Amino acid sequence: MNQDDKYQNRDDNTAPAAVALKYDGKRAPIISATGTWELAEEIIRIAQENDVPLYENAELAGILARLSLNEEIPEELYRVIAEILAFAFHIRGKTPDDAHPEAGTAADEP
Questions:
Q1: Residues of the domain holding 87
Q2: Do 40 and 13 form a contact (C-beta atoms < 8 A)?
Q3: pLDDT at position 8, please?
Q4: How many other CB atoms sit within 10 Å of the CB of residue 22?
Q5: What whole-number distance in Å separates Cα of residue 61 and Cα of residue 90?
Q6: CATH number at residue 56
Q7: Which of 28, 39, 81, 95 is within CB 3.0–4.6 Å of 72 for a Cys-Cys bond?
Q8: DSSP 17-77
Q9: What is the pLDDT of residues 6-64, one digit of tens each?
Q10: pTM as predicted
Q11: Number of domains, the chain
Q12: CB of 14 closer than 8 Å to CB of 47
């Protein structure tokens, strides 16, 4: 099956979506990439090539895909996104402080 056949009868209301989030540890995560169909596949390919953990949830991706680039995630999604980020850090054996060492705690200071 070639790419043209794969998407020939596609319905844009049920398009597979991929969303990339950027989290700096200081603000809410922001949308850094979003796309459907071929662009979604490209986002996933780039994430895999760079060992970025993936989380598959079509409903959540569909909600996030409606947001604009560089837009913060809505407050209603903080908890679910926090759980996903915590899991992503955990499976890599890291903590948010490992990704952002400048965000140390007061207990780290002399």
A1: 3-108
A2: no
A3: 55
A4: 11
A5: 21
A6: 3.40.1690.10
A7: 28
A8: EEEEEE--SSS--EEEEEEEHHHHHHHHHHHHHTT------HHHHHHHHTSPTTPBPPGGG
A9: 555 555 567 889 999 999 889 999 999 999 999 999 999 999 999 999 999 999 999 99
A10: 0.73
A11: 1
A12: no
